[in-house]
Structures are given as structure tokens and as C-alpha cells.
Task: structure prediction
Amino acid sequence: MKETLLLTKHMRDFPENSHNIDVYEKNNGYSALKKVLKEDNPENVINEIKDSNIRGRGGAGFPTGVKWGFLAEDEDRYLVINGDESEPGTFKDRILLERDPHQLIEGVIITCFASNIKKAFIYIRGEYAKPARRVQEAVEQAYEKGYLGDNILGTNLSLDIVVHLGAGAYICGEETALLNSLEGKRGEPRLKPPYFPAVMGLYNKPTLVNNVETISSVPWIINNSGKEYAKLGVEGSTGTRIFSLSGHVRTPGNFEIEMGKSFGEFVDTFGNGIKDDKKVKAYIPGGASAPWFTGDQLDIKMTIDDVANAGSMLGSGAVVVMDEDTNLVYAAKSIVSFFAHESCGQCTPCREGTTWLEMILERIASGRGRLSDISLLVDVCDNISPGLSWPPKMTTICPLGPSAVSPITSLLDNFSDELMKMLPTKIPIAQ
Amino acid sequence: MSWDNELLERAHKIIELYPQKRSALGPLLYLAQEKDGFISDDSIVEISNLVDITEVQVKSVSSFYSMYKEEQTGTYLLSVCKSISCEINDSRSVINSVKEFTGLENYETDQDKLFTFEEVECIGACGGAPAVQVNYETVEGLTPEKTIEMCEWLKNDKPEIIVADQLQNKFGGTKSFDWAIEDNTGSAYTVPGFQNIGTAKEKDN
Amino acid sequence: MSDQININVNGSEIRTDSDQLIIEACEDSGIHIPRFCWHKRMDPVGMCRMCLVEIETPRGKALVPSCTTKVSEDLIVDTESEVVKKAQEGVLEFLLINHPLDCPVCDKAGECPLQDQTMAYGPGESRFVEDKRHFEKPIPISEIILLDRERCILCARCTRFSDEISGDPLIEFIQRGNKTQVNTFPDEPFRSYFSGNTVQICPVGALTSTSYRFKARPWDLKKVSSTSNCSSMGCSVELNVSQNKMLRILGEDNEFTNQGWLSDKGRYNFEYLHSENRILKPVLNNDSTNEISINESMELISNEISADDNSNISFIVGHNSTNEEYYALNNFVENLNKVNKDQNMNVYLSDDYLYEGFFQNNDLLGKVQDLDSVDTIILWAQDIKDNLPTLYLRIRQAVKNGKKLVIFGHTNTAMKELADSYFGQEIISKNLEFNVEISEIPNFNELINDKNVLAIIGKSSPIQNTNSISNLINYLDKNSNLKILNCFSKGNTFGALQNIDLVKGLNEFINEFDGSKNNIVFTIGSNPVNSSIHSNQIKDKLINANFVISLDLFKNETTELANIILPTTSFGEKEGTFTNLEMRTLKQNKILPTPGSVLNEWEYWSMMLNKIDIENNYESEFELNLQLCEEYLDKDNVPSFDNLNKPSNLDGVLNSKSINIEIQNVEPEKIEILFVNRLYGDSSTQINSPSISMLGAERFIEMNNDTFIKHNLSSYTVNLVQGVSTLQVKIKINNHLPNELIIAPLNRRGFRDIDTTKPYELIEVKNLEELSVN
Result:
């Protein structure tokens, strides 16, 4: 198993100055843009993206070409790049922003050309100060070289990019919350319908919201054709993906691979196995929201559909490996605390439920658990995500609340003994 | 204290970037935090006038986001990550070492206004767990010992500008990925160092 | 009109409008879905999740909020399934884990949706053993509202109301997630004209009124529907009384008028009813020790009336009488006239804003509801937000729904942000006349030509020449499909106009006062000596009058000059009808006993007639009502008590009568200061209502920044000096005003001595010593 470098090739080839516009240009950079400007057929660009079958890399995996096709007609339309990467375990956009910002900018310009958009925003989470600086620097270089602003490269195309910094709210990764945030409001997810910002988005105008990795893939697709891209990976999960590997592996990092290999192979090949030769007790296949797999399930294939069929999700492509000595109650508590902290507070079940779950786990972790807490946990989870099924049913506007349920059902389904160990052995009289 | 002309000029430049004034609210709040080390009521009044919304609407937004601070921060904001990858890589001991060194509990600032300590959720440095940010500059692969060294250095050297690469070189360990590109820019406030809000500062070598 | 479709709810077919939400469709069919955040007058937010229902989708059953999901043809809805019940129970348990158990001391208990729904849908017991969220117990967020954040369930009703409905977002969510709380900004409390509505719509006891705190339990309250006389909007209200004391006024949802909302003045201006300052017995010569019996007073008055066949008898009426009382007064005048044709009798309305209006053509009369159907709303009148606050809310709503708003003049600056076109100083002079031909007004014709237009029209200033208003109306009538709302803002003005044969203004009173004659003046629920720009002249006339009789609730500047004061009943103490600005007649009901030896106005007129041996043919409000109904133009739809008490007419009856107003148009003068009436002022009812008495105390004037600079001012506290009079005022900057025009509140203490056409000076208050000398 080895990496297939599309998005991370340039940065590997020119590690010390991949961010520099001259270096980028010298190595085929902005050639995809020049190509589409020369052809001057936006429809073709959209068709290439459709042909590539690329699915959004933010977590939901929605087909990008289809999303672009929804964009409603309007004088004002916007592109918003979702760089609010905050899902625990995920750091793939960070490397793309930090080390190859021009690839993203080129993708942005092509996308805006294809969809007749004149203003784009790159929303980067506040904690990514350094990546944001790199992108801003690159945007300024692109303006100087005539790739941005009015009459791009002498054509009629005009585009402005504003790099916007978030301020510490995971929920803004949800696209409608991100739009609210960009409008200077609380980052609360909007009601659905309307289901797609492509119909009603930023300032209620048609808006494309795409992930950093998705749009960074656009130059390659244009240069090599959508069909070539679709040949990579497997059906339903075409192309490459950058997986963020962390946890108890020897060599964590970002690895760009074609989808389709097993998690076990991935962990062994790129993570070089588990530190101190320990065994895997459990792993998270797609960021903190995803239900866990056990160490016995390492042969599951890394595709959107395989992971979904096994009861979890590939999500943001973040693989977190937990070794045999990991206290999974603490691990679950950490994830539940995360979601409790990041709940926007709109929906009662999420606002109250996630915090309650956190309190119960905190109590158990500190030795003050009760036997009845098991059924209580299950029932509170059920009141947030009825039936505890996967994909989750929701009592909430967005999936954040049900995300806090995932680690608890994972714990209860496969590791209930760990939880039981932390509870008193005597049955309380009240029960 | 209201904003001086220099700050107002920066504010107006930011507002011009957006199709609607209110979109500038987030960046303007960073200016407020740069000025006072937190979002003061005076700044809220100023911003409400700049973007034409009520004071409580500004407050509603500023208090929603973790990075806008309601109480005055010290010179150095130590944000220790405790989310899953850091948690299972013993971020707890890093947290404890910071607590021990500074004597601070979560969200506290010392009397000298040197350090503010907070436990934070995922900062996107999971491959380099456990990770810490100082004034939103990331350092990865810390150990308790290196953490203490870093705090000591901050206390003794009182660097004006915090730069991620310098922190990493001095105190860091395993990284999420090869940072590769040399960098000398960082932040001088408890605000992310970023050109658009005028907080990115270059460090002299 | 939207299409009708069928949906299936709990196994039964329901027919419903296709654009309705599930929760609305169910409600209309009598199926109640529990809810906290949803309110039919506000946009849904789907936050509390209490109204979850199951619907059938192509991918199986789905749990959806019924407040955000629209109905569709053949939709199958289950509001009672096990899954739904479980979810609702879950939501209630979640809401209760942080809700304090202080129902025994909570004003809301007994009428609390959280309490009620917990009983109906909630879990039996709490499994929450952790600490509840704690906040400081009630904190005042304004002079009249208290906030208890522990009780708050974060339904966003108050925050949405203030943002969406009243447009003054001063209360908001602070923090996020589990730490979220509702609050105001420290230096900018909840100073809204409409804040009380948030108390009424709060589904728990988080927002409470200082005036109602710990006063009563809902089950002890006696309730009756009525109509507010706070403004000529005629807002529907519910009066709540316990132990013969009015404790609370709530808004009722009348589709045609206030849609449930009230201004804070309409809501809280009632404590005066039980003020110890009320006059409870007839008083002679303004000497409180000189109380007389009603019979004695009637004797004295009838003697005066009969004494001189050639006397002038003037009636200065206010806005708080019922239609029946105005009718009885008119009947009194008519009968006196019949007996003695030499006596000169006139009725004057105590309102500086009165002018002929536009009543000639009934077809032109508009309705409030027209706001929702016209293309363009034209507004040129006094300040709507201050004088017709609930009409202001309706206009806001209409604009939100896409209606174009065009504002003329300098009084409605508060609505400039809402307007598509605001015609300020380039178009309208300081004297409120057009600077340009109406046809030449830029971007105006396209907003009105062949459009449906509702013009809300009235005088902006007491001394305005009304030719310009007429010109505008003529122009609109020619070029658009026009409807008119005559904008007389006060109380039951339209009831007075409908039921008094000829109504004149205060200026006419002054001009017609003939000192050579025997003058008898009645003031009826009016205080012209303290509420008019003509106050000083009126005072002179009353001093010179031979006999003055005041019918009123309180002693005031006018009753001071009266030979006899007759105590009268107030709102809540009398039954009758009220006509609002669209000629909708609504019912006012009695729920309080009459205090002391107080009589209704009509009873006095009746007794006086008896004393001078004139037969009169009514003995009750009911009979008066039957008589006044005879003059309505549409005979099939008269606003009789019988008719108005029918369930189908609880919202009132639209009908008109011929209206005669006689006012001399004033010559245009140079307006230096533009008077406006503020919502809160120094009326005797307000200053005798402790909860709101201080809200009208501040004295401020408004001007634009250029004017401020031109006057060389540096501080915002100045002395307004005109001749010998000096008034210390605060300055508020309002950049929508034209240069050199200053706005001052007519209904605040001290301002009536100012002559708005005379030059003035603004002199800075130099030191604190001067500040303290007020």
C-alpha cells in the first residue's frame, strides 16, 4: 500500500517553498485555470467535476458536481470555503492551507468561473492562525499576479477572495452555522428546509459551500479530466483522500491514498503499527462523531459505503487509534465533553442532553457512578437520538447532539465491561 | 475608553472587505481583544456603532465564540488541548504541569497578568498530540517537562511575539506533519496573528 | 389564497391550507401539539423540540418538528405515537433538569405552559441527580421587567419578539450551549416600548412584570375581554382583576388590530384606577375639604345653565369616553339647544392634531388590515411609534412581508430604516410643506402609479398648515388605488367624531370664546390647560369663564380652575363601545365596581337634563347604544352590544357614520421647534401609575449633529431659553432631522410654555451646581 499523491504532491516536491507563487507557477500551477479560461466554457468545468464523482470532503460526502448544479440563478452568488476543520482527530485541511494555499486558490477561481461567482470567502477556524496567514499571503500574491481582482488574466472574469477567521466554535463547521458566523451572527445551524445554501445561503443568496480538500482537488481534475480522477479509488469513493491518522500509532500524520484499502493495512503501513507493539482496542474511523470500531474490525475497507455499512462513517477522514491500555470510559467522556462544550444550545435535547451525559460520565469516572446510570445513559441517548440507530435519527436541527451519542453507544455495545468495572458492585437499595 | 483613530481606521478597512457590515463583527471583536486583552463593554459599544446593531447583539455573538474572552487575559494565553487524540496521549499531564507552574485553574489569569490558562477542545494538532497553543501559535508533541520549560522561557524571556515555529523548535516533539516551510511570523497578543486584522507580526531574527 | 389540501392526522382526514405548518393545521382542527418556542405571530425557530411529530416519508417514518414542517398533499402525521410521546417526555425531562422547583413562589404558576405540559406529557419523576444551573435570582432588566434566568427554558420567544416584531433587539442569548442565558446589555437595559409583550409570551416565569409580582394567583383572577383606549388602534385586551383591583392587562390576539401585542403603556397604564388621588366625590371650588353630594352638584350646575338664556356653553372633551358617553353628551347638547335656541353651544375636542381629515368619501376609508394587501404604504403623520405603537408593529410586519413604505416629513425618523423611500428635508420643509411639486419627487411615482396604496395621514405638528396633506391625498387619489387611514391617534377620538354632531378644535374654542357673554365651560376627561400648545390661552379663558365644570378622575391643571369637579368612571369601570381609527367599533367591558360616589359621564348628563326638566329617553348604556346605532350607514351591521357580544363579532364591527369636523386651517408659520407626543408623558393617569410614572420624566430634545455643532455645543445637557423661560433639557442626536429643526416632546413637563415658532437659544449648563437647579 502506498500513497497516491494528487493534492499533496507539490508540497512533497518542494517542501520548503511549496507555498510560494513562483514555485507553484513553475510547476504547472495555475495551468488548470489558464486552461478553463482559454476554453471559456463554464459548463465544461461543471461536467468535469460531475465526471470525477468527487464527494465532499467535509464529512457528509455529498457529490460536489450535484451540489454545484443546485446553485440558483442570482446576480449575487457566493463561494464559501469551509476551512473550519474542527472535528477531533482531523488535521488534513491544515496541511493543505499551510503548505499549498495556491492549489486551493486556483480551485476557488476555477469554481467561481464555473458558477459565475464574483466573491469568495475562505473561512478558516480561528485556531489556525498560521494556516490563515499562509493563505492570506498567497491571496495577496495572486492579486499581484493578476489571478484575482478585476479582469483576471485579461479576461472578463472578476473575483475577490476574503480570508475570514473564525473564533472557536466547532459548530461553524456545519455549513449553515458557518454562513451565520460569516454574517456576523451566532454560529447556530439554520433550519432546514431550505436544505441547500446553493438555494439560500450567505445573505440569503445562492451560495456554494465546499470543503478545503474538495476545492483543492479541482485543479488536478481540470488538468487530468474528471474521468481520470474517477479511475482512482473505488466506485462511490473516487479519487484520493487525505486521512489524518492519530492516537497510539508510531507515526501519525496525513496520508493521501486512494480509498478502498483496509484500516488495518493503513494503520500498519503509515502508522507503522502501535506504539510499544500494543494491540488496537478500538479505533474511530471518521472523526469524533463516528461510532467506534473494535480492534477486531480492522479489516473494514476505507470507503464511504463500507464504513457506513459497518455502522459508522468515514466522515472527515480522521482515524484515531486507541491501544489496549486505553481507558475507553475516559475516551468516551472526552468526546462527549467535546460535544457538550460545542453545542450551540438551540435544541433542548442537545443543549441539556449532552451536558447531562457528560455529568453522568464524569460521575462514573470519579467513582460516584450508580448501577442505574447504565440505563440512564441509554435513555438519555435515546432521547437525543431515538432508537440509537445508525445513521442516527435526530430530535435536533443538526447532527451535533447525536454525535455525542456515538461514543456512548460504542462503549455500551462493545466495551460495557469497562463501564461496569467503574460502577459499584452492590445494588443500591433504591433500585 | 473608546477606540482611537488608528484602531477605527483598521476597523473601517475590515468593514470594507464585506458586502454587509455585520460580517465584519468577528474580526472587529479581535481588534477589541487586541486592545484590552478581552472584549470590554466599551468596545462592544464602539463595535455596535460601527456595524449598526445593538450592544447586546454584539455581546450575544462575542460570548458565543470561545476565542473572544470575557475577562482580561494575561500576556500569554496557554491553551492546552484535551480532545480525544490529546486525551489518550496524556494531555492530562501537560495540563497538570501548566497548572503546577502557573498555579492557575482552568480559565484563570495570574495576578501579574502574565499567564491565562485554559483547557481547550481540539486545535487540529491531533497528529502531534499532546498539543498546546500560546496566543494561538501551535506547539506539538509536548511533554510535561518541555511544557514547564516553555512556561519558564515565557516568564523569563517575555518574548514580544510568539511564533509557532520557534516554540516548536525549542519545546516541541512529534508533529502532525512536516511543517517544512520556515516561518517567522506570529502573534503579539492573545489574538490569532493574522494580516487582515493587523495582528500578524514578524519576529526579528 | 392558498389551495386546500388533505392531510391525515392520527388516522383522520383534515382539510387545510397548503401553506400551513403542521402545528397550525392541527391546531385549526382541534388537535393540540405541545410547544414552547412556537408562536403563531413569529417565525418558527424549531428550538424547543417539544412539538416533534412523526410523519411518513419515502424513507420511512421521521420525527420532525411540526412548527417548521409544512403540510403537503396526503401527508400522514402521527402526533401521538409511542416515539412521539417518548420524545416529548424526553424534551420535558431535559427542560426540567435545570428548571428550579420554585413554582410556589413563581408568578407564572397556574398558567405556566411548562407546568401544564409537564402534567400532560412529562415524566413522572426526575432522574437528574446533578447540580442545577444557577444564576442570580431575578435581576431587573428595565424599570418594569424582571428576569429570572434559572427559570428560562431558552425558547427564544422574547429575543425573537424584540428583534422580529418590535425591532429593538435589546434582549438576546448570551453564551452558548448549556451556558446559554437570556440577558440584556449592562448599560442598555430592555428599554423598549413593547417589552411587556415578552412577559406575556414567556412560557415560564423567567420574565415577570414588577407591577404584577406576587400580586395574585391565576386561579383567583376575574377576567374580561375589553378594548384598550391607549390609542385609537383599539387594541384587544383582557383585563385581570382580583379582589376588585385591576392587576394586569394582557393583549388579546385580534387579527384585525393588535394581533396580541400591546405597548407597555397600554399594558401598564392601569394602576391609577386604584390611586388614592382619585376624586371620589363632587368637589366645590377646587377645595378638597368642600365635598358636596351629587345632588347638590347637579342642582348648582343646572341653575347655572338655566340662569342666562344667552350664554355660551362650551364642552371640551377628551379621548377616554365611550361612544355611548359621547352620544349622551351630544344628546344633552341637542336637548339644551331645543329648549333654548339662543344659547350657543359647541363641542371641542382637546387635541391639537385635529383637522378635517378625509371622511367625505367612505369608499376611501382604509383598514389596518389593508397594510397586508396593498403595494405601498404612505406615511405622513405624527410619530407612529410613540402615538400608535401597535400600528407601528403592523407596519413593521407589512414591510417585512415586502410592502413598500414611503415616509414623508420629520416625525417618523424612528421608521426611516424600514422605509423604501424617506422624504426628508430635500422634499419637505421645516414647515412641513412640499419643497417640490409632488409629481417631481424622485422615485415616488413608480411606487404609487396604479398601485394599491394605503395612506396613513394626519397632522405631523399642531401648527401645520394642512394644504400640503390635502395636495398629497389629491395626487394619490388621482394616480393610485387609494385607501386612507385618518391618523388621529388618541383613545376614542373616532368615537367622539362619530357620535358628536359637530366637533371643533381647541383653537376654535379660543377664537369663539366671547368674554362679553356668560360663559359656562365643561371639560370632560380632558386637561387642556396642560396638554395643548394653546394651554396658556385656554387657561386665560377658563379663568375668565363664569362657571367651569370638570368631569375627571384626578385633579389637574384644568380642574384647578373648575367651580365644580365631578368624579367620573374610567376604563374597566364602565361598559360601552369604542371606535378605532378604521371605524371598527369594539366593546369595552366593565369588570371593576364604581369607586366612591362616582358616576358615569352619561349619568351626569341624564341627571342634568332631569334637573332642568327635559325629558330624556335612556336609562342605561344599553339603551344609549341602541340609539346611537340608528345613525350608522350600514343598517345590517350596527355595533350594538348584542351584535358585539356575538362570538362572530368579538373582533368588532366595521361601520361608519357621517363625520363633521370644523377646524380653521392655520397659516403656515416658521416652525423652529417641532412638537411631538411621546408614548410616555405626564398625563394624570400615568403619573398615578407607580410602575410607569417615571418613564415620562426625562426631558430631552432631538437635533441633528450639524445643528448640534452649529449651536457650538459640547455637552448634551443644555438650557433651552426662550424669552424669560428656561428649561433644562438633554440632547439626543437624530441625524434624520433637517438642519436647524429641533424636536421636543409636547407631553412632558415644562415644554408647553415653549412657543414653537419663536427663536430660542441653547445655552450649555456649565457646572454641576447649575445641573442640580432644575
User: Anything to note?
Assistant: The longest strand of chain C covers residues 725-733. The radius of gyration of chain C is 28 Å.
